[in-house]
Amino acid sequence: MDRLLALARARGGVVTSGLAARVGVDEHGLVAARRSGLLVRVRRDAYVVGALWAAAGPEERLALRTRAVLLSRRDPVAASHEAALALHGLPLVSPLGSTVDVVADVLRTRRGGSLHLHPRGPEPDVVVDGVRVVPLPVAIAQVALRSGLRPGVVALDAALARGSCDLDALRAALAHRAVTAAAVRRGEELVTLGDAQAESPGESLTRLLLHDLGYPARSQVVVHDEEGRFVARVDLLVHGRVVVEFDGAVKYEGADGRAALVAEKRREDRLRALGYTVVRVTWADLHDPARFARLVRRAFAAAGV
Fold first, then answer.
1. What fold characterizes domain 201-303?
2. Fewest C-beta atoms under 10 Å: which of 69, 97, 164, 232?
3. What's the whole-number mean pLDDT along residues 260-265?
4. pLDDT score recorded for residue 114
5. How far is CA 57 from CA 47, 60, 83, 278, in A?
6. Do residues 72 and 16 make contact, with C-beta atoms less than 8 angstroms apart?
7. What is the DSSP letter of 125?
8. Structure pTM?
9. pLDDT at residue 248, rounded to an integer
10. Domain positions in the chain
11. β-bridge pairing 277-281 and 242-246
12. If DSSP codes are grouped into helix, strand and coil, which group holds residue 243?
């Protein structure tokens, strides 16, 4: 089994039945490896190293599953949609199941269990860590057109922040795939909403919700006091008066946590002393748009804007 695990790790943590046979591990050995947890089967003939799978989050699991599936196929397919975004290392907010999307030499989309094959577009595949994937702008366009603006904006913001997405290439990918008027409008809105200043998916989704409520926001704004001294860099600023901060999974436990809480309170006190209204939103607020709207509207009422 040591040779099998070494082979799998050399392939990015994945292996196939055929490769296992090359190092003397037959089907009985693969069954034993699965039972012991050394390997996890993600599709017929496709396996992931169990320790890597157990430690991986949803996005990493999709990337591992995709690597294993592509390794198990003999035809020249390339990862697409969310599978491509996972391999490109971009954040995902769509529900991530066991489906792997690929582009292949097919005339129409074919669904076979957990594998979906889509016709190729005009763009050539690229290689990421030894795996064939569609180019990043194509994957963003595919996800936005199929799954909506939320995952599209989150992925686009992250790609723009990394400097890895060409907007002209994104427009071309959208134009090739947007076949209805509604899809064209969604693509145009996606390009308009992208923001390289966003620093997390939570910030991207907060900004998108503010946009949908009619409150255009500026990201990562630096605030100074009357003497020009730095006070804070805020996540989002609306109408120059309302600061909207996204609070992720921050834990204020222990001495470090208490110190962070005190520092955050002082920061907000300084902002309020300068005339800003501060509102904090969490993942729970983002998952409840009605509550988010109430929270934000109360803040705007308090600010008098």
1. Endonuclease; Chain A (3.40.960)
2. 97
3. 73
4. 87
5. 17, 5, 14, 32
6. yes
7. P
8. 0.92
9. 77
10. 1-55, 57-193, 201-303
11. parallel
12. strand
